[in-house]
Every structure is written in C-alpha cells, then in structure tokens.
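ok here's the first one, seq then struct tokens
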Amino acid sequence: MSEGLRERKKRETRQRISDIATWLFVTKGFDNVTVAEVARTADVSVNTVFNYFGTKEDLLFDRQEEVEDLLSGVVRERRPGESALEALRRDFLDALDTRHHRYGFHEGSDAFTRMVSRSPSLNGRVREMNEAREKALARTLTEEAGAEPGDLTPVFVAAQISAVLHRLMTHAVERMLAGETLDVIAPDLRRHAERAFGLLESGIGDYCVRR
C-alpha cells in the first residue's frame, strides 16, 4: 500500500524536527538545548514536538528501533549455508568499507560520540539500546536455531558477538576523537575485525547455519 499524503507529511515533519534537534545538540551540547529551542528553530510548537517524540532523548535517537533490530535483521536475512556469525561479519565489513552509519563508522560519528559522552542521560540511553540489541539478537538466535527452552547458547553467542562489535567501534571512535581520519583508521579496523571474527569462528562459527 502506497504512503498517503497525510502520512508522508507527518513522516517528513518528524524527520525535520529530529534533524534540527540533532544539529542543535551536536553544535551546542545536548544538555544546553531545550525542547522549546528545538521547537522554535523548527518553527513548530512544543506540543507538536511532543506529539512526535515522547522525550527529549527520543529527538536524537529517532532510529532506536532500527538500531536495536540491526543484528537480528542481519541474522534473519542471512544467506543459505551462512551462519549467524558469517552474516554479521559480512555486514560489519560492508558497513566499514562503505562508511555506512549502521555501526557508527562514518563521517561525524566522532562529534556525535563526544556529545553523548558529555550527557549522563544520553549515556544511559545508549547503554539501554546496546542491551536491547543484544537481547533481541539472543531471541532471534533462539528462534532461528530452534533452541530448546532453557538453552543459554543463543545468549552466550549474542553476548560474544555484541562484545566484539562494541570493542571494535570503541577503538575506532577513540581514534576518531584523537583526530585520525576514517581513511587512516579503516585498514587497521578491518584487520582487527578479521582477527576478532576469526577468534569467534573457532568457537561459534557453525552456530545457526541457514539450511
């Protein structure tokens, strides 16, 4: 079903408010910008902002559901004969090579991380999102592998993969914050990723292979 005019306008308005809010937050600092300032800059009322976003943090994390479902989606869409680990490795390296935003390795991610690090509420939201993403991955692995009730293997696999991805991106962001460019970081990050996924391969490489 095609998107109606009303739905399209609402989606565009929501995106415009979020884009303006993100720009203000990155420029001035999250805690230094009020919702009223966001509304004024976007030329809407405060009530309109809250019609689209439940909290101030939601203005920044408008793609939270997409972020939390990222790993699960990759596993669900893995290729025939491909394991969960292989699919996630392939997707991560593709994002690295194309500088796609889905894992946080893209232009501007250093400024975003710097802003988040200075706000306790944003730090808390990021932790919640990471935990939700890992739990979602564990649920998907449970379903895709047909794990028995009480089998913690999907939980262990999800935790290992999530830890590797977290450490890789933490390393990349630390280097970005130190002033290194993406082009300088990328070759080393790919080498570290190959090594990390290689270590996982010996333990969970054959888990949840699509038949």
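and now the second one, same deal
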Amino acid sequence: MQIEYKRLAPEDNEKLVDFLMSSQWPFHASVPEPDAIRQRVASGVYDDADNRTFWLLADGERAGLIRLTDLTDPTPMFDLRISSKWRGRGLGKAAVRWLTEYLFNEFPEIRRVEGQTRGDNAAMRAVFRACGYIKEAHYREAWPSPDGSVHACIAYAILRHDWATGTTTPLVWDDEPVRT
C-alpha cells in the first residue's frame, strides 16, 4: 500500500465535509454538522499559524485525516481519524510515526508531542505504544460521549530526545510525598 500525506487545501472544504460525514467516529466526542465544519474551515481551525491538517492518502484514496494543533506551543497535540473502510491496516501507526517526525523536523522549538484517546480505544492506545509514546495521564470520567456516557481520557506523549535517540525516558508514577 502506498501512503502519502497532503496538506489540506482551501479548495478541500467540501471534501473535508464529505470525509467527516461519511464515516462513524466511535472514539471522538462528536462530528460537527456540515455547516459548522465549513465555518470552522473558514475561521482557520484546520489551517492557520496554530493548526495544520493533512490528508492521509492510501493508494491515492482519502483514508484519514491528521489535525495538528497548538503548533505555537512547545507541546502540540494531534487528532487522528482513519475512515472505517481503512481501519486495521496499519495506517494509524504510519500516521503517528509520520506526524511525530514532521513535527520535530518542522518545528525545532517543540519539546514533546502529545495525543489523547478514550480509555476504551485499545487500537489507538496500542498505536501510541508502538510509536514510542508513553502514557502520562489517566483522566477519570473526562471524555463525554454523544450518548451521555463518560469515559476515561488517556494522554500519551513522546519527548524529542527520546524520538531522536530511540530511547524511552521512564515515567515516575509513584512520586507522592510520604506523610510522617
């Protein structure tokens, strides 16, 4: 399979609407209505100084969407959506590896990259681990769903020096001071 990444262009407005409306996104909080998507594009939510969005193309087809946010911050975040037709084919790992390399190469001031997912999204959690990201936070009952249920939100991140060296800086979980 040939994988490419193409930056979202202004003329992609309707393609973006079609893409977001054409698939189920069970692990995302919501999908805005078509007019709201158009308004978000017009206001720069998908592409401005702080945000960039890329198509993930698999064999020439729009298979996914990568949205990079907080680009003016030393810790940007990302949103990754793989259309239902293309899930389970390794595109998540390819996309996270690509976006991590892109961010660290394109923005020398970035120290770490963070992503979050719902606690029950086992596939995305496996992608994070496979790409060298470390679990840094577990936010209990922090991710509301459209059906009214609430899920845990899990945050993963990778440090620039870990990415550059292929190592993992251990995370100290048990660091609470002992009361005497």
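notes on #2: Helices lie at 13-21, 34-42, 91-106, 122-130, 160-165. The mean pLDDT is 92.
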